């Protein structure tokens, strides 16, 4: 696949969309603006820019406090849904002004996941906060939101939804490619195999963040730049115990979240061990993420891995992952090399999902979520004016082209 220069195209439709999402790390809201269009059997996406809007410290603390296994109340969920919605509204409005030159047609929101209900390996329900009415009221634009629930109702996991972007984006790549996202939870999308497949491999940053918070008594929410992990050594006994978690042996498609991999989970594991040094703990958890991701990639015969998400900013994690992938000559690069900024990819995915819904196109890939079939995702909250939908698309897209001005294709390479 080559990056196409931005040039006039006979589009059947063109829409400027702002995507907003907050991942399981709950750091803040990722915002991306882009132009999206249907052209033949392709979706064409031109990134306009991305940014992050941090949560207020008090709101982030309340969100973290509401995560399982903690108990909460209906009143607290209502308050959080409203406050997250207001923050999303402010972030989307700023994204329109700062990234989209003050002009947009649609906002798409994946919200803030608070609980993902998985029982006996089957997703039963999922809850995302961030009331879309606040976004519509602030921006005046229609909002596509609640994008996971329909997939769950159709027998899927509602996650990871990145499979739809990755299956289109990497469709023309030779061999088996894997798109990796490292957020609080790590997930992969396998493209080029017998069929598209996507699933959560396990913790990405979730346990690393929990450990950083624990060993610094709350002074540090992350292992900034992987410094603590780089200063420590992997504890093989602890790593083996962590690797014995039954989740890793479950067949795909599967999903997980912080309702499983959280601070309480880590504390239970550590109860069975004598003193584990702070740096050694971070090194071991970093190795856990790298090993579980690499093993999943090896299992599907990947030749290249294209990584995105907050974890790509952690040099210790990326170095460990690169080393494990290289054991079978698998190359690793970030999504920036293929035209999508690693830090903004999930927000661009959100924009794409909203665009597909507005054009009557499915936003899930059954092989990646386990749903019974393709489904239109989400609900639409009207903006200030009457809701006017585009004509439903006559052709289902088969590929995604990223449009960047005067930029040449650069293949993935180890670095």
From TrEMBL:
Q: Which InterPro entries match?
A: Anhydro_N_Ac-Mur_kinase, ATPase_NBD
Q: Biological process GO terms, please?
A: 1,6-anhydro-N-acetyl-beta-muramic acid catabolic process; amino sugar metabolic process; peptidoglycan turnover
Q: Which keywords accompany this UniProt record?
A: ATP-binding, Carbohydrate metabolism, Kinase, Nucleotide-binding, Transferase
Q: In which pathway does it act?
A: Amino-sugar metabolism; 1,6-anhydro-N-acetylmuramate degradation; Cell wall biogenesis; peptidoglycan recycling
Q: Does the keyword Kinase apply?
A: yes
Q: Name the reaction it catalyses.
A: 1,6-anhydro-N-acetyl-beta-muramate + ATP + H2O = N-acetyl-D-muramate 6-phosphate + ADP + H(+)
Origin: domain of life: Bacteria
One Pfam assignment: AnmK
Enzyme Commission code(s) on record: 2.7.1.170
**Which GO terms of the molecular function aspect are on file?**
ATP binding; kinase activity; phosphotransferase activity, alcohol group as acceptor
For ATP, which residues are the binding ones?
Answer: 23-30
Q: Which family does it belong to?
A: Belongs to the anhydro-N-acetylmuramic acid kinase family.
- Role description: Catalyzes the specific phosphorylation of 1,6-anhydro-N-acetylmuramic acid (anhMurNAc) with the simultaneous cleavage of the 1,6-anhydro ring, generating MurNAc-6-P. Is required for the utilization of anhMurNAc either imported from the medium or derived from its own cell wall murein, and thus plays a role in cell wall recycling.
What protein name applies here? Anhydro-N-acetylmuramic acid kinase
Upper taxonomic classification of the species?
Answer: Bacteria, Bacillati, Actinomycetota, Actinomycetes, Pseudonocardiales
